[in-house]
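User: quick one, sequence for these tokens?
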């Protein structure tokens, strides 16, 4: 297993990364991308952390140890353990998930299940998975195509490159062209795993492609978003100064992929299955890593109410109670999704219950804005009108700030809490988390669609007909939820 230093050393190669219009020579030394890389690197130190080693390290029957992120789940207990590791890792990262092994393993669990019946491809996936596990690699996932005109299918687009596709097949591999959006962590991982974004028609085999390539592969270009590019001010930005995630537009400019790294090529009937099976794992990862953020909102509400001297107010207690209920409902549904685990018969790989997983994610996403509103109400307007770090460190101004910004606690404590609350509710990091709540790992509408499709209405309908004294209907007469 690697430590943070070894992980960072492995990022010094010829990868093509662009930030604010300039080629990045060294992602580790770069002011912003380096902060994101160091944030991710902290995840590799969990194995040596006394509070987390039991979760972070798995020992197999042969005595071999490896990261629990790369442990294939075979039971409900395995999924619960995975969820708790993701939660612990995200708390270690100050509410921001590392996502450099979580998402890659999500994709490879899904690929192993879907491709189990294809002997050659299944062996390639197994071999690549074992390499990731044994070398403790970091992997990003490029799934979401840029899509162009969303009213048109991939094969009907004016520009075929808006969906990643195969442009050439050679004796030694394939060549792909196109772009993927929203690729998290790609500048600072070892490998990039590519999977389809949607179901495809029989006439769209060129777009049915999945593979893995090293990030330094020629023709692979990573164009970084600069959304969290803020000045390093730990006093006012206690989270985002040192904890960042970088997303990229991931361009494949005629990238060559050897056959041993190709997992899907042309089988359109499997593209949608891979996309949906990946989501079964990745939304479970999502709700697991949201939990520390919700705990932080509860803790802030309590601490700020005390600091402002309003903790006994009835409406404040009501808001805190709501926040507690929200956080624990999402946590309970996450654990319930694991306890309702299903076992894939072909591979023996466990996966979380899709209905409960999507219910947890939907509950988190639809109520997140309401949670922020309650914390903002308790905190007060100083979230956006308070002093900056230069004011606080000024010998001339500090006495005034200590005098006039004290509350039920000293000004230093109160302002520290307000600055953290501002990070989570009002500043760039808050906006980033707001968008993630709505769109990351699937939109609200995508989650509702899975709920609709996953729910079996027959038991409820039969119960109602029994209560009403109406004759039961044959199972084949009961259709989906209307």
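Assistant:
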């Amino acid at each position: 297993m690697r430590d943070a230093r070894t992980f960072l050393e492995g990022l010094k190669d010829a990868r093509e990364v662009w930030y604010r219009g300039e080629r990045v020579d060294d992602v580790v030394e770069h002011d912003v991308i380096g902060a994101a890389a160091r944030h991710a690197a902290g995840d590799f130190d969990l194995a040596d952390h006394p509070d987390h080693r039991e979760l972070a390290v798995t020992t197999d029957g042969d005595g071999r140890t490896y990261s629990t992120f790369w442990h294939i789940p075979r039971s409900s207990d395995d999924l619960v353990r995975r969820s708790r590791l993701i939660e612990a890792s995200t708390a270690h990262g100050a509410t921001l998930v590392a996502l450099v092994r979580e998402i890659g393993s999500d994709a490879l669990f899904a690929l192993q299940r879907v491709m189990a019946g294809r002997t050659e491809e299944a062996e390639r996936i197994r071999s690549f998975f074992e390499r990731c596990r044994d070398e403790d690699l970091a992997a990003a996932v490029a799934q979401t195509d840029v899509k162009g005109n969303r009213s048109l299918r991939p094969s009907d687009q004016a520009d075929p490159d808006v969906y990643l596709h195969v442009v050439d097949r050679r004796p030694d591999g394939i060549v792909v062209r196109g772009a993927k959006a929203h690729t998290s962590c790609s500048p600072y991982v070892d490998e990039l795993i590519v999977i389809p974004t949607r179901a495809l028609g029989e006439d769209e085999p060129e777009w049915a492609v999945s593979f893995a390539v090293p990030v330094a592969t020629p023709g692979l270009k990573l164009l970084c978003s600069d959304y969290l590019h803020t000045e390093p001010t730990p006093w006012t930005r206690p989270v985002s100064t040192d904890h960042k995630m970088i997303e990229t537009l991931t361009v494949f400019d005629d990238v060559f992929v050897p056959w041993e790294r190709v997992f899907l090529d042309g089988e359109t009937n499997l593209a949608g299955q891979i996309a949906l099976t990946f989501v079964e794992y990745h939304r479970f990862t999502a709700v697991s890593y949201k939990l520390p953020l919700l705990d932080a909102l509860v803790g802030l509400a309590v601490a700020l109410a005390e600091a402002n001297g309003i903790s006994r107010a009835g409406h404040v207690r009501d808001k805190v109670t709501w926040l507690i209920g929200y956080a624990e409902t999402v946590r309970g549904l996450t654990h319930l999704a694991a306890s309702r685990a299903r076992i894939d018969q072909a591979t023996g790989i466990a996966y979380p219950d899709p209905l409960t997983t999507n219910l947890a994610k939907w509950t988190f996403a639809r109520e997140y804005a309401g949670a922020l509103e309650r914390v903002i109400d308790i905190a007060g307007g100083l979230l956006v009108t308070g002093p900056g770090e230069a004011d606080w460190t000024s010998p001339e101004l500090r006495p005034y700030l200590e005098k006039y910004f004290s509350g039920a606690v000293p000004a230093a404590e109160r302002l520290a809490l307000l600055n953290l609350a501002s990070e989570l509710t009002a500043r760039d990091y808050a906006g980033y988390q707001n968008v993630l709540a709505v769109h990351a790992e699937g939109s609200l509408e995508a989650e509702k669609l899975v709920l609709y499709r996953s729910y079996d209405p027959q038991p409820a309908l039969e119960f109602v007909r029994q209560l009403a004294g109406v004759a039961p209907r044959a199972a084949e007469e009961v259709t989906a939820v209307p």
